[in-house]
Amino acid sequence: MPSNNFTSTANTSWTAPAGIWKATVEVRGAGAGGGANNRATTANAGGGGGGGAYGIKVVDIVPGTVYTIAVGGGGAGGSNNNNGTTGGNSHFNNNEVKGAGGIGGNRNGANGAGGTTANSIGTTLYAGGAGNNKNGTAGGGGGGAGASNNSAGNNATGQAGATGQAEGGSGGAGGGSNANGTAGTIPGGGGGGAGTNTATPAKVGGDGANGQVIVTWVAAPTTMIQQWERPRVVWRSVPTAQTRRR
């Protein structure tokens, strides 16, 4: 029988169709923002933000019930000498299935960790990829990739953002000297850190990408209802012995 799916990268709800009692739910947390550069010193570019974690679980559902879907918003890239913001968690039905968001990159060049399995909920869990530390003295660190559906997200190495695999989003690249970091891609890619800059305004880290929720179910088969015809009873008069003698 054919399967159906409902995919969202923003907060919404899903109504269970008639005849469906189980569904497979996949969730990915949002990517975190990359760190801004610290203008107090030319040596500190921003660190890359971490990617979102992944969780999957087969859940029991009730036909006609409306289920809440919360998708984590991507963390904002750091600005004005600030760290990147942590990515939001994504979940289905009030944390029945949950994917944790990544951690923001630091303004002093330290990387942000990927969303963890410890903070996620599901039967199978994968962590998000970590962002990279600042790239030397000039470049920001790349963002970590969102977790895939069969492995943890790739960690960023150097200034390049980590490549996402199997539906996980890629991390954004870190900024070069006097350049902003690049945003991660949906779902769950972390933002790249800002490059060094001592002038005004300070350079900003790239934004993390939103998370994602996917609900998959098998379509209910068409029920063939056989209608049986009720037997007809025919009444007739039967002569009695007395009426026959007449």
Detailed description of the structure:
The chain has one helix at residues 241-245, and strands at residues 3-8, 12-15, 22-28, 54-60, 66-70, 90-92, 97-99, 124-126, 212-218. By secondary structure, the protein is an all-beta fold. It has one domain (1-246). It has a 5-stranded antiparallel sheet, with no helix packed on it. A 4-stranded antiparallel sheet has the order 2-5-6-7, with no helix packed on it. It is elongated, with a radius of gyration of 29 Å. The N and C termini lie far apart (73 Å).
Proportion of residues in β-strands = 15-25%
Uncertain stretches of 5 or more adjacent residues: 224-230
How would you sum up the major sheet? 5 strands, antiparallel
Beta strand count = 9
Secondary-structure element order, N to C: EEEEEEEEEH
Radius of gyration: 29 Å
How many helices does DSSP assign?
1
* Structural class by SSE content: mainly beta
Q: Judging from the principal axes of the Cα atoms, what is the shape?
A: elongated
Helix content percent band: under 10%
Measured between the Cα atoms of the first and last residue, the distance is 73 Å
Physical arrangement of strands within the biggest beta sheet:
1-9-3-4-8
